[in-house]
Amino acid sequence: METQEELKEEGVGYVVMRNLFSRDTDYQLRVEKKTHSRSIRESADRLRLGKKIQEKQEFQKKMNPDSLTHPPEFTVKPRGQTVWEGKSVTLHCTVAGWPKPRVAWYKNNVLIDAKAHSKKYTTESNYNIHSLEIKKCDFSDTAEYRISALNVKGESSAFASIIVKSRLPMFAECMYVSDADVEAEGVPVAPLDVRCHDANKDYVVVTWTQPAVEGSSSILGYFIDRCEVGMQHWVQCNDTPVKYARFPVTGLIEGRSYIFRVRAINKAGVSHSSRVSDTVVAMDPSDRARLRAGPSAPWTGMIKFTEEDPTVGVVPGAPTDLAVTEATKSYVVLSWKPPVQRGHEGVMYYVEKCLVGTETWQRVNTGMPVKSPRFALFDLAEGKSYNFRVRSCNSAGVGEPSEETEATTVGDKLDLPSAPGSIVAIRNTSTSVVVTWGVSKEVRNLRYYIEVSVVGSNAWVPCNNKPVKGSRFVCHGLNTDDNCVFRVKAVNAAGYSTYSTESEACVVKPSIEVPSPPSAVTLLERVRDYMVVGWKAPAKTGGADIRGYYLDYRIVKGNVKSKWHEINLKAVTDTTYKVENLKENTFYEFQVRAVNQAGISKGSVPSAAFECKEWTVAVPGPARGLHVLEVRKDSMVLLWEPPTFNGRSPVTGYYVDIKEEKGRWRSIQERSTKNTYLKICGLKEGVSYQLRVHAKNIVGVGGPSQTLGPVVAQTRPGTNEIVVDVDDNGVISMIFECSEMAEGSQFVWSKNYKALTDTSRLTIETVGGKSRAIFNDPSLVDLGTYSCVVSNTDGVSASYTLTEEGKPLSLALCLIDLCLTVIPFTSEMAIELQEKGRVRFWTQVAKFTANCQVEYVFNDNIITQGKKYTMNFDKSTGIIEMFMDSLEVTDEGTFTFNLVDGKATGRTSLVLIGAGTVKIQKKSEFERAEWVRKQGMQILNKLNFKTILTPLNGPHFVEYLSFEVTPECDVYLKCKVGNIRPGTERVWIKDGIEIEEGDEDLSKKDAGVYEVELRDERGKDKTLLNLTDAGKTNSSSELKVESTEHGIILYTNVVYYTEELRVNWLQKDSKISHSDRVQCGVTGEQLWLKIKEPTEKDKGKYAIDIFDGSAGVKRVLELTGQAAIAERNRARVVGGLPDVVTIQEGKSLNLTGNVWGDPVPEVSWTKNDKELLPDEHYTLKFEHGKFASITIAAVTTTDSGKYALVVKNKYGKEAGKFTVSVYIPEDEAEKKD
Known about the structure:
With 1233 residues, the chain is mainly beta. 8% of the residues lie in helices and 44% in strands.
């Protein structure tokens, strides 16, 4: 029971609470009974409220400043940059951390004091963004920069490299690019694959691969050059050549970047430099590893700052693990580990050496201690032994020495590899050979060079530019049918081994292998004691002809099969075989194997079990030996052999069935054919077909043959057809060419698909990949289908049908008669311009008689000789000519020569219409004006085609204005003037505006029309040149062709030639390979391609691609067979004439020049560009079509001058020039005086 006081206190509390919440409102007490569910819900609400209060307390705890601290972190790192010398550069970064980190900038781990060097550096820090500005950079600013951020939670760093490049001095706007020095003959090829290893603060090891070609003598050693990145100056690292392909380079400056290159040297000289190595930075390996690893994990320890560093003034301890890592006769390399006791200050090292047997230690690097824990010692006495030790040092002093090394004798420790073992060359493809060899013994890390030589040439050519590992290599780029030998040499860091023994000679041809198995073994005939079996030839011959087949059999009784037994010991060449001495009513299975030069194939799939018993059927058996020839996109020819079993009567014909893919069998012909071949037409291109043949006799049609196919109807690229040719003498021949000739391939001609037995009707001539069948006496007997098959190819074949109705043979016979009624021309009518602007129309007749007459026609009007026209018909050469003094506008039209020679006639025409005629007219007028100028005359007026000429006394142009581009890319405008005086004015004009002296050089903006004018009181003259963008020339001339005594040369001239130019010659868009017959090269500024003894295969489109690394140019020339022959038969002077002749006055001069050309050229002689005519003083002769001679009787001083022997035929013109100088003896000269 509650006491009275407790009830009173409770009542007072109640009144207070009531007054607090009532807010002057009436308070009513309401008693509510709670349910169990409501009590549980209120309990859950109280728990949720408690959780929220706890989360709020944890959040307030985190807001405590002591809980927000964390180590520095680079959210944006500084980025490395490359700048030009003299420019400024700024590094930026962003750092997060609490408390706010303190940052410091370092250059090559040396603190940057921006306040002390305010003119060089400026640092800024705003809102956690920090920057370092480096002003007016020079090469010394090339370094690795580091920013360090530090607070009480830890430290973090970020790195960035700055590379400063120096600009090349610009001497002129246009720089002259000179040709590269020609590599001296016999020097080595440049070394390969230069690399840098084990880089440290001032030390790096450079390695390389020896070149494939040593030159005319063995390599004596190598020079190593280094260059700082951004500089152009190369410094040679070694004074004497090093023998090994490995060299330690010392003396590098910490923080700077370097590249290296290597040169080889032999007795002939020094090679070109190798390609430069990758850039390497001289820095501590630990710094490099930290830079590659990126930011490290945050440090969670605590940094304590004290007033003094206890490690200051500590002398470093002795280095440890000192060892000799390399020892050669050129240098010794030492390596060690830094001392454990070294303080926070960096350490450097002194190296000491001691000659074994003495106690005297000598410091090697007295001038400057090294920073890297590696060192290379040079200039040691070869053959003597040394001990080495190392001391550490810092600002506090020099520490104790390390333990000394064992005695090291100076000399080569690396051994030269031994010669590789036996070498074997194996055929691979038509342009490659597989070479294998035995590896060298007792030496590791070997690589190999392979060389090839054509038998008899004594010239070795490397097959691989870089050495290869292993003992197998495929040598590509060889010429088909070359007989080659190979040899191998090994190479390591010490040098080359001796060459291996030469391999056996290997002909470059596709390799051969055993053929694939035959297929489809079938039964063709059977009687009581023998069966005839047939099969299909192998699908793959293995690259060689099938020499024959071997057959096996086995007996089958129910499900039991006996072993295989041989049937024939001698290979059979046919695809059928009669198996004798069999048992009647016994079942046999057969299999067949094919054999070629490589060996015997696997057995075919066994045949079905055949029962040996006599056939009683009356119809013939199946045809055999089905195969197709002349497969084209819409046709093919099917051939087969008669069945071995004819039935009760002979075979009277055949039916052929065909089936498309996924189609049904259908018969091709309505009536049977007696031939064992059939041309199937009307096929669909790209569709596959299957074929079979039925034989028939009087009783009926036999069963189908074995199915052939599928065969795809398509014309293979490069397929040729037989061509019928009739030459000028009426000889009829059929020509077939094949570009896929293989070893042992032959052209096999047949008539009606049967071998030719009567050889008197045809003469077969085969040269290379071309075969010609010539009819000896063509007549109706020769009608039929002629086919030609090329053996040992993938079915290369073609046919031609000669029929009586019209086309092939009858047309050929008509052509023979036509040749007797048509006058043949050696060349059609042509036009050429001569001196004085004279126009010559000419042609040459091949065959004619003395009664041949010529009728000259212009626009269907007969013209005769007179003032305008001059005609000539030289019946000794067959040349018909017509001359006109000038070509005018009214002369547009058709010029014709009509020939009549008995019953034979001939006609040739030339049409002059349009722009071409206008061009010839202008050129004729120009030549006429030039001749007048040379004669000292000037055209004053030209009205109504009348020309008035007066003596030329004023200034004039001897040569008109033209331009020239020099190899230095300068453009010169030039002209030649005559008869000028000091007072003669010379005025240059561009686009009507006079050009003042001292204007800038010619550039693209200066394109326009240029004029030069000469004038004085005697008269004036001017010349004009249209120099626009359209008049630009390319860097190379158009392709030209020229004949030589050995063949033809295609050539083009470039402005200048350098080794960087990449030149490719192409024929029919395929790259031309180098051979003894086809060669390419460069002479001076001329790029040429020589073809010895050109053939029909050499005709086609030729092109040369010239590429200098940024731009290229392509020149194309269509070289037909006729063009090649024309160039070879061009008229030319081949010798006999001197350059200069000096002769005494009164003597007689006789000179003979050798002339060549087909047809025989016309010959003339000129003196000072004027034609000479024979008289008493000049005797001119041309004998045997080869020798042209001139005789000058009793020469005088007036006979001095420039002479020329001019030869010309339908293919071209050439002049052999020489100078004659007549002198007077001294005594005769005194008499005259």
